[in-house]
Amino acid sequence: QEKKVQRKMHGGDGSEGSAPRNSRISPAKSLEVSDSDGTKDQGSKLCGYLNKLAGKGPLRGFKTRWFVYDPRKCYLYYFKTPQDALPLGHIEIADACFSYEVEGDEGQFEIHASGKEFVLKAPNRQVMRYWLQQLQQKRWEFCNNRGSASRDSWSSPPLPDLPTGLVARDADAFTFEKPSETTESVRSEFALETSSEDLAGVGVTRNPTFPPTNINFSLKHWGTELRNSMSQLRPGRGSGEGNRRSVFYTGSDDWEMIDPPSRELQEQMAMLEFSKKPHPEAHRNSTGSVFAFDFGRTNARSKRPLLKDVMGGPSKNSRSIETSPVEWNGSKSSETQLRLQGQQEELARLREELASQKELVRLLQQTLKSSQCDRRSAGAPDSPQDSVQLIQEKDRQIQALCGHMEKMALEKESLQQELRTLKNKVGEINDQLGMLMETIQAKDEVIIKLSQQSCPGCESAGYPTRGAPDCSSPNSLCKELQELDKLKDSLQGYKTQNKFLNKEILELSVLRRNAETREKALEAKYTALEAKLCQIESKYLVLLQEVKNPVCSSEQNPAREVISRLLEDALQVESPEHQEHTILKPHPVSEYDVYGFKTVPEDDEEEKLVAKVRALDLKSLSLTDQEVSVGVKWENYLASVMNREMTRTPELKALIRSGIPHEHRCKVWKWCVSFHVKKFRDSVSADYFSLLLQKAYEKPNPASKQIELDLLRTLPNNKHYASPTSEGIQKLRNVLLAFSWRNPDIGYCQGLNRLAAIALLYLEEEEAFWCLIAIVEVFMPRDYYTKTLLGSQVDQRVFKDLMSEKLPRLHAHFEHYKVDFSLITFNWFLVVFVDSVVSDILFKIWDSFLYEGPKIIFRFALALFKYKEEEILKKQDSMAIFKYLRSFTRAILDARKLMSMAFVDMNPFPLRQIQNRRTFHLEKVRLELTELEAIRQNFLRERETNPDGRNLISDDEEDN
């Protein structure tokens, strides 16, 4: 506790010691975001308090705002407080330029962006330079990363939310344009020397003294928080009042403290005050304090000051315990002196206690002897010999007392002699003191006379003076010296400003040149594509003209030749033999999509062309205005939760139902999984997954063999699971083995491998393990993945009921042709549509599934049937219907239309209704299984008793 007090005394725990006292806001040390709120997937966060010029007319003035930089869009958001959810506005840093005036207010700088001018003010120049340097660096990084040749858009931001998952490995393939080494070296030469300590960061929100508008949302201080939030509406008292305000007070008129001292601080100050009060006996024998300041003694000794107090001067003894810790000396020597002072006081206290204990023992021994003598004297002497012994003992006591009296007399004489010597010394010291006081008074008079004769302006400027005779024109010389100092300061300021502006001009020139290069490339690409489009249009016009003319059946159709030529041109676009200029080449269809699934088959040329058409259709759908609007909404939402954790809200539910953008899916999935399995993770150790994995490799369970057989059959059309050496195979093995040891009653069921494989695309091993637990143990009913698949059978019956209710025509059509569609939908429910729909729709379904649960499966299963309801109704044959059902979902590409059917057309869709029907059908299925088991047992008994039936083999026995 004393060490904590010492650190607080010397400013070891805060940065107030270097902060200006009259500043409204104070800098704080820049911290890592990973140190706060457990967010480990982000780097250092540029944030802090700045004053922003706002308002109009007479209400225009600086207001304190909390600024946070968002690397996704290169925006600088500003909030009223760090706890706010929605920002008040933002500044676009990507196209901004920065400047400041040397002769302007200290710490004030300007940001020009998007045709607007933002005036900000830092507490001092050092903080201002740090912010300008950081904003320049963020702009430089963002604009350079924006020029990636592998990205679809030149203006798309970097992908900061892909730190995990298998798809994150694809992000490493992006090659950004790197600036030249010469430019980087010049930028480093122009860089200003600023320290990142005590400037900006998350730590400012943890200190109750930062800043006046920092509101701590608690019921205890809600009155103060309300006054702080309304303080900006009150008119100030003038410019003079602002200089008198301390960082510990609000801007209101009543000068109320923001937060009272904490209990811990009060206890520390009380201990400090107690430790500074010496023991009276120890202080009587001490010669002086090692610590330079004599805390807590001045008031008690104001009437009779000690000689050392007089010699030490009033400045050292005027400090009390109430002096602010940030004003004390913070050097190592003072800390060592403070520790030595405490150790000496502790040693003196222990010595005094030891002496008192020895005296107590001596007194107890004397009391014991006297009590024994009194007891002997109280009784009658039994014999003359006893009387003689008693008299002899009394004589020894008398002799001992006489000897003690002689010693005391000698000690008294020595003390009197020492007292006389000390009195003489005190007299001599008093004489010396009087002489010294007179000498000091005479020197003071001489100094005053010399000061009056010398030039005051020269002294104030710090130049040596020799008196009035050598200063011929003091006023003019002082003015020249003062002007020289001002010019030197201005020169240094302009040098710093020139250095900063040179770097700003250099960066803006390079960024503008890069932007012009990108613009020229885009114009050339646009021109080439436009020319290519004209060629294709002309070919199709020829085709339409040929189709328009009537052709006899006996003649050869000329349109066939045109169609075959167009197909050949389409297939030769990406062939290695077809050498074409890069800029004239249309956007190629990648062999794999962004999730790693194969989009183009290898063998059949016709299927390859159809797959390319499907991929281009998906690409065009992803570039619609609605998709762009969803991306903007997600950016705004993530910007609003920068200062807090995500929570389940209607806004978030609507956003997830619209689909999570690829670059943010990892972060949102991880949060969804953590939310659903929080109670499980809190009840186990942090290394629970590692322990399960270690146990699985040390002692394989019966499920291990089946897991190995299914690894390569999981997602063979995905490059992350295509071969035994793929990175996803080992991760999938670890997740399934750990899960089999957690749930030995399930072990492994075919279908779990696909669920884990989809989770691993965006999550790491441990998070994918918990995702599998969320699906099996939280979302799905019991016995869903067991050997009997009881829960899956129940859900198929529930789905039939919902089909008859939501899609009655289609259900009647299936009943009429006796089509059991559960043979198709069973796999949908078991693996949540994996390998049943296109990847873009699959992951949008999983977005809502991980947030809302299994109800989403029912919604999308009904929506898929509704999407193709008319086509299914046209089929008039059971075989044709069943054949169509096996592949119709792969032809559905419009995710927006499908999601509208699932979340709008299927309403109302209460979960309670599904749960009630599950309970109803569960009893029926259990009853049927019981009857089947009874029939099986009867069959086995009859076979044993009937000799002819012993040759019969049941299906179960044949499987075994």
Automatic annotation (TrEMBL):
Task: Return the GO cellular component terms, semicolon-separated.
Answer: cytoplasm; cytoplasmic vesicle; cytosol; plasma membrane
Matching entries from CDD domains are given as: PH_TBC1D2A (cd01265)
Q: Which PANTHER family match?
A: RAB GTPASE-ACTIVATING PROTEIN 1-LIKE (PTHR47219), TBC1 DOMAIN FAMILY MEMBER 2B (PTHR47219:SF20)
Which Gene3D superfamilies does the record match to this protein?
Answer: Pleckstrin-homology domain (PH domain)/Phosphotyrosine-binding domain (PTB) (2.30.29.30), putative rabgap domain of human tbc1 domain family member 14 like domains (1.10.8.270), Ypt/Rab-GAP domain of gyp1p, domain 1 (1.10.10.750), Ypt/Rab-GAP domain of gyp1p, domain 3 (1.10.472.80)
Report TM segments.
Answer: none
- All copies of the PH domain together span 43-140
What is the originating organism of this protein? Lepisosteus oculatus
Q: Which PROSITE patterns match?
A: PH_DOMAIN, TBC_RABGAP
Q: Does the keyword DNA-binding apply?
A: no
Return any one Pfam family short name.
RabGAP-TBC
Q: Name one GO molecular function term.
A: GTPase activator activity
Region named Disordered: 1-41, 304-336
**Coiled-coil boundaries:** 405-432, 484-532
The Rab-GAP TBC domain extends over 659-853
Annotated protein name in UniProt: TBC1 domain family member 2B
Question: What keywords is this UniProt entry annotated with?
Answer: Coiled coil, GTPase activation
